[in-house]
C-alpha cells in the first residue's frame, strides 16, 4: 500500500493518544516521529531507475553495482 495521509493521520492520533502525559512534549514528539517512521517503512515504496550498466553478462550471478536515481512514493 502506498503512503497515505488517510492512514498516517489516524496513526499519529493513536500515537498521541497512547502518550500518558500529554504535557510531556518530548514523549509526544517521539511518539509522532515513531508513527511517521513506521508509516514510511511499512508503506513507502522506493523505485530506482538505472539507465545503463556496463560489463553485464546474461544469466544468473552478480553484475557489479549500477547507479541511478530513485524516488520514494
Give an account of the 3D structure.
The protein has one domain. The protein is built from 2 helices and 2 strands. It has helices at about 5-15, 25-45, and strands at about 45-50, 70. It has a two-stranded antiparallel sheet. The chain is elongated, with a radius of gyration of 20 Å. The mean pLDDT is about 85.
- Distance from N terminus to C terminus (CA atoms, Å) equals 10 Å
β-strand percent reads 5-15%
Please give the radius of gyration in angstroms: 20 Å
Structural class: alpha+beta
Largest sheet: 2 strands, antiparallel
Order of helices and strands: HHEE
Low-confidence stretches: none
Residues in helices, as a percent range: 40-55%
Query: Helical element count?
Result: 2
Q: Trace the largest sheet across and list its strands.
A: 1-2
Amino acid at each position: 500500500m502506498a503512503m497515505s495521509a488517510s492512514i498516517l493521520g489516524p496513526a499519529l492520533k493513536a500515537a498521541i493518544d497512547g502518550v500518558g502525559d500529554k504535557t510531556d512534549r518530548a514523549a509526544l514528539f517521539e511518539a509522532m516521529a515513531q508513527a511517521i517512521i513506521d508509516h514510511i517503512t511499512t508503506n513507502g515504496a522506493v523505485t530506482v531507475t538505472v539507465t545503463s550498466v556496463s560489463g553485464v553478462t546474461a544469466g544468473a550471478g552478480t553484475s557489479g553495482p549500477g547507479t541511478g536515481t530513485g524516488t520514494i512514493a
